[in-house]
Amino acid sequence: MKDVKHFLRFSDLTREELDSLFKLTSEIKKKYKAFERHHTLEDRTLVMVFEKSSTRTRLSFELGMSQLGGSSVYLNTKDSQLGRGEPVADSARVISRMCDLVMIRTFEQEMIETFANNSSVPVINGLTDQHHPCQVLADVFTFIEKKGSIRDATVAWIGDSNNMCNSWIEAAEILEFNLNISSPPGYEPTNLSESGCTKFFPTPDAAVRNADLVTTDVWASMGFEEETKLRKLAFQKWQVNKALMAQAAKNAIFMHCLPAHREEEVTSEVIDGDQSVVWDEAENRLHVQKALMETLLLGPSKS
Ligand code: CP
Ligand code: NVA
Fold first, then answer.
1. Does the CB atom of residue 183 touch ligand 2 within 6 A?
2. Which of 28, 48, 78, 119: disulfide with 92, CB 3.0–4.6 Å?
3. CATH code, 255
4. Which of 49, 50, 55, 281 maximizes ligand 1 atoms within 8 Å of its Cβ, making it the mutation to test the pocket?
5. Is residue 128 scored above 70 in pLDDT?
6. Residues 35 and 54 in one domain
7. Residue 4 domain-assigned?
8. Average per-residue pLDDT in the chain?
9. pLDDT of amino acid 191
10. What are the strands of the beta sheet with 213-216, ordered from one edge?
């Protein structure tokens, strides 16, 4: 539907919109920590549709909406008509007539696009097989908090060229930072941007050299569980461990969207070590998504 602003992939926001979103996130976080009320979405409602499991996404959206003065409803495929063949377009028309915002976690990006095309309210991507833009919003915000501007910084993505990797590729293009990707043969990204900010490296060592941020994710994402055994063999050399972190910039930080599989894609020593910012990163999902919901409903912050 026309004139409805959705967030289906990272590139749905411009650089200016992102700058103002991160500014609003800082304000919202500060107020929350000071126990100050920020009820900009009083009486507004969010519907959350989950077709895959979640801890962080559900909590951060549900609690975030309540902290903004609104409320939310959780739907899953098992006990709604969504799992019984009601067309996505019809579900979108009905659900969007009853609420102000919709967040969806599903398999195919196409489903969320069909939903958005038929929704009269903004739709947010809470993860698809192809993208995880809310997580990368939180990750970029965390980087800015820890290290200042991300422009011209170097981020190393080690592992699967999955939904997270795709959202990082879009973020690098818009926010103009260097993204070094290293994945095992057969799991490389196919969609590197033309601007040259994203580069592929056949070995993780080369990708992390001088990186300000090293980040990774599980070897088998949700929906790819059947490939777990095969992937464990293929990804062995793409583990983020102390030796790999030692090759990044001296003050490099480590991020993981979580949940993590310790001693697979990352060692406990790294995820629990001094360079890891994963708990701040997880918390920032809450703050950044509150800013996102506010922005989609009320427009970019003027402050
Ligand atoms: N990182 C993330 O999206 O976590 P959940 O799967 O727990 O929502
Ligand atoms: N790439 C992971 C992220 C989980 C938050 C998955 O899709 O399962």
1. no
2. 119
3. 3.40.50.1370
4. 55
5. yes
6. yes
7. no
8. 96
9. 82
10. 198-200, 178-182, 154-158, 213-216, 253-256
